[in-house]
User: Fold these one by one.
Assistant:
Number 1:
Amino acid sequence: MSEQSNKPKSILKNKDTLPSTSTKQQTPDPREVAIKHARIIHSRREVEDQISDSIIELSKFPTTRDAPYNASNPAPADAESFQNLVRLYQPSDYDDLIEERNANGLCGYTLCPNPRSRMSGSGTFKLVNFGRKDFNIVPTRELEKWCSQKCAKRAMYVKVQLNETAAWERAGIASIQIDLFEDIDAAASDATKQLEKEVENSKIEALEKSAQNARDLALERGDSAENRKKSKRSIKLTIREKPVKAPAAPSLDVDGQTHLVTEGYKTTFDSKSETVSQEIKSTDVKETIPEE
């Protein structure tokens, strides 16, 4: 008995207390998994069917084609319907819409009531804007999708807003909105008008400020209204010509010896030599006179 009590106990659990490896984890019901996938596929197919139906519907737009509505000013109901239906489109879906409208003989832009253009000739490519800076060679098929370049720009503006993500992944996002090209033009024109108005107001304020500065400067100088009235009085002026006497011309030979000046140097003579020369000349004169 003592030997059994002194025997150490094992720290490992007994096999009876360990969980049974034979029990398998609970697996989901295959039927429920199949039903879940079927519902996902069905919802995706519904979204695709809605897009297909909307392509057929938009291929006949606009519903209102009377004046004053046109491509640049569509009817509000048509514009709203187009924006709501095309918001879940992929770019490929939008291309299908353009082809469907061309098949009906209409311009590729959904809100345009005009027929698409037909290019003359049988060439595959056409020269656009020949001789200009924006010259380009465009396939004839691309040019015949629209009635004008303006409608092509409107249609491409809508296309660049579309997303490549699948439509069923974006179906529940309400924040997705599609803008029209005319809406951007209107917003830009409003901003331009507001800017022009602010510039005009700043010009008026500058003129008023300069006028006030001129008035303040006039007051500092004492240029009041009464002084300005006095300054306007006419004064009679008489202009008389003053007689002017011409100055006498200076004498060029003051001392009578100008002929003695040579290159700025004046020749001088000694007085003694002059008297001797004069005596010699007088004796010579006496000798030459004959006696009577």
Number 2:
Amino acid sequence: MAESDFLKKFGLSENTERIKGIIESILFAVGDGVDIKELSSIIDIDLKELKSILKDLSLEYEKDNRGLMLIEYNNKIQLATKPEYSTYIKKILKPESKQNLSQAAIETLAIIAYKQPITKVEIDEIRGVRSDRAISTLLERGLIKESGRLDTTGRPILYCTTDEFLKYFGFKNINELPELIELKLENEEE
């Protein structure tokens, strides 16, 4: 079967395959997430058509022998390597050893994720201890960011999660956070 016959059989056009190549080139070159609307504008195709092509491209990457995948977060799309190949990538990149997040940093990150935007004082009140070091660590790792200031005495800094947080935990957006068990129990008691 000739390539053009194959493409027609599955409702694809040579143009669609070319667009996939353009998408791959852009995502590879950028290396970070690209806004889907911006990508649509750059390629000069309808947003609905782009999303259809991205879905098709994502299915192609899901094949066992492919080393790449598409990840989506906050209406951005990014080309990434599959997690199962991370050991090989680590061997060649030899990354600096990063320590895991401390329990305090994990607690602080969870509080920020569920209560954002939130001030340091509010975080400290919830945890019952100071969170300066945990906040500093999370800022350094790019998992949280300053998102403005509260309009009150002292104008405390507000913190929220970042796109890096979404990528790290595999969420498309903040609404995908699991429901808190504590809140679920309170609702059941009522």
Number 3:
Amino acid sequence: MGSPKYDNEVLHDHRGLQDGQGKINEMTDNQFSIENKTYALSGATGALGGSIAEYLVRNGAKVILLGRSPEKLDKKIEELDAISDGNARAFVIDLLNEAELRKIGKKIGTEIGPIDGLVNLAGGNIPGATLRPDQTIHDISLGDTKKVVDINLFGTVLPTIVLSELMVEQGYGTIVNISSMAAKQTISRVLGYSMAKAGIDIFTKWMAHELASKHGDKIRVNAIAPGFFIGNQNRRLLTNDDGSFTDRGNKIIMNTPMGRFGDASELNGMVHYLLSDASSFVTGGIFDVDGGFSSFSGV
């Protein structure tokens, strides 16, 4: 396996004229085109993030991956290069380290150039912050709960604040955060994750107002609220060793009108829409991709 192509090559080849306010060239016929645009993705080596990275590259975009694990980044770069050689680069970084983020932000600005968008994908849960069925809230690890809040909330807050400075300088850009059904109603056992995702919702709305009202209508912030997708971090909660659903998994299916879990690829269309010029008058929104879970009361 070759070493990842980290940070030395210019990625940006933005098509379409931009004026001083970053106005999009009105002559383009395809508002959904993301070809030759450059997007930074944090935490894009997991199941959902990896699918989004592959989708963007397949549709002609260039991606900058931000993550902590050189091994995972190396593997993902190799996979993306097999799709479209040279359209992906990576930076090894702790997303909770503000000083590191600011250094990377400067490198992106000087060595890569403008970025058209940021997708904040870092997140997840850990066992100590997840109550077992036989536990009460008094058994939870508060230290692990704080870690979960940090990575899911501040792992989005810090990259957004730092990289949005580049967007303000260039006059345009779009940010997509990842919320959750756990932000909308009580999902048992996952207190820290729920608090963090509720924070993502208000942070999305707050930043949408802040950036548009002070820096113009070409800088937008939205979020996607996925329903239930089986990934490495929740597989044991939702499925048994034989592949059947756990009690929790069955409850979710019973309360999802479509009667199934989502596939990672089913987030790609919403991400595409929010990154593209087709959503140019959309900011501060939280968009459910959940098979109808949030629309059903359970009765």
